């Protein structure tokens, strides 16, 4: 029962921190320091990644009509007037091309160097520095953008080149834990002139292939030989992450319509300092 309660807590933290640009990894490291799951190191490594499937299902359900490329109803851009091709939504297909292009850098590096990168950079020093650096980046970029107008206000206006450049920022998050995948892609998008709401939406959509791919990679390496306790912990964590993610995504999309990301920048800086000080002197 205690392990189930821990899984619920991990699910809550995942659901909140996966979508807010504050680094789920940084929070998971702190949480693991105080509340350790009684599982094998191999399963815990898998749990930290696969629990994200619950979070990503929230995006799939909330934004289904915004990215699903098939359907006759409300299809202003059919591939053909009649037949099966009339069910293909050209604008959504183009969106998926942009998403997949943006995922190429992180996918290539993840498949080739996943274990090496985790061994090299998965430590409190990297996490704390990444938290602070990207926290400062949020504040600096938002201060700059206060005097400029965004030039990209629709997903349709994101070019293939812009998508690839956003993908390079996502690669930074794949290499350096604590950067925050959503934080890195939002910072990149803002730098490229994308509006806050479009930057957040594109970040959410990028998470779909990235998280499914990362989870599949971990499951292939770990296998499907879960104990009953491990399976229960994983399912509970995923379900809680899904429910919490629904509320957090709705909150964030509403919040950034009237506010900027600077509050998250300041939060990251404070958290980075806390992580650094704690592990240097107390951990």
From TrEMBL:
A GO term, aspect molecular function: undecaprenyl-diphosphatase activity
Top-level EC class as recorded in UniProt: hydrolase
Cellular localisation: Cell membrane
Extra remark beyond the main annotation: Bacitracin is thought to be involved in the inhibition of peptidoglycan synthesis by sequestering undecaprenyl diphosphate, thereby reducing the pool of lipid carrier available.
UniProt keyword Acyltransferase present: no
PANTHER family: UNDECAPRENYL-DIPHOSPHATASE
Reaction(s) catalysed (UniProt annotation): di-trans,octa-cis-undecaprenyl diphosphate + H2O = di-trans,octa-cis-undecaprenyl phosphate + phosphate + H(+)
Ranges annotated as spanning the membrane: 43-64, 93-113, 119-141, 162-179, 199-220, 232-253, 265-282
InterPro entries reported in the protein's UniProt record: UppP (IPR003824)
Functional summary from the UniProt entry: Catalyzes the dephosphorylation of undecaprenyl diphosphate (UPP). Confers resistance to bacitracin.
Assigned keywords, A-Z: Antibiotic resistance, Cell membrane, Cell shape, Cell wall biogenesis/degradation, Hydrolase, Membrane, Peptidoglycan synthesis, Transmembrane, Transmembrane helix
Keyword Transmembrane set for record: yes
Organism: Massilimicrobiota timonensis
UniProt membrane topology term: Multi-pass membrane protein
Protein name stated in the entry: Undecaprenyl-diphosphatase
Broad class of where this protein is predominantly found: membrane
Family designation: Belongs to the UppP family.
Enzyme Commission code: 3.6.1.27
């Amino acid at each position: 029962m205690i392990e189930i309660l821990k899984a619920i807590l991990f699910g809550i933290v995942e659901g909140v921190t996966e979508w807010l640009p504050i680094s789920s990894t940084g929070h998971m490291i702190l949480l693991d320091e105080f509340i350790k799951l009684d599982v094998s190191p191999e399963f815990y490594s898998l749990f930290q990644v696969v629990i994200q499937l619950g979070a990503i299902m929230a995006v799939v359900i909330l934004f289904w009509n915004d990215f699903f490329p098939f359907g006759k109803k409300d299809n202003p851009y059919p591939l053909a007037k009649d037949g099966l091709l009339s069910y293909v939504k050209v604008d959504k297909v183009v969106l998926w091309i942009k998403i997949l292009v943006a995922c190429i850098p992180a996918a290539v590096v993840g498949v080739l160097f996943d274990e090496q990168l985790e061994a090299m950079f998965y430590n409190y020093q990297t996490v704390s520095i990444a938290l602070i650096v990207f926290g400062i980046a949020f504040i600096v970029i938002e201060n700059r953008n206060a005097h400029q107008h965004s030039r990209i206000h629709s997903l349709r206006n994101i070019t293939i080149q812009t998508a690839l450049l956003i993908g390079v920022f996502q690669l930074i998050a794949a290499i350096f834990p604590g950067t925050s995948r959503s934080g890195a892609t939002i910072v990149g998008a803002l730098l490229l002139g994308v509006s806050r709401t479009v930057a957040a939406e594109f970040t959410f959509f990028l998470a779909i292939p990235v998280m499914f791919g990362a989870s599949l990679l971990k499951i292939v390496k770990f296998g499907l030989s879960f104990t009953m306790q491990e399976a229960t912990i994983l399912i509970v964590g995923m379900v809680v992450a899904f429910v919490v993610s629904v509320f957090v995504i709705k909150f964030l999309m509403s919040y950034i319509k009237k506010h900027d990301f600077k509050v998250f920048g300041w939060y990251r800086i404070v958290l980075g300092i806390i992580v650094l000080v704690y592990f240097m002197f107390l951990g």
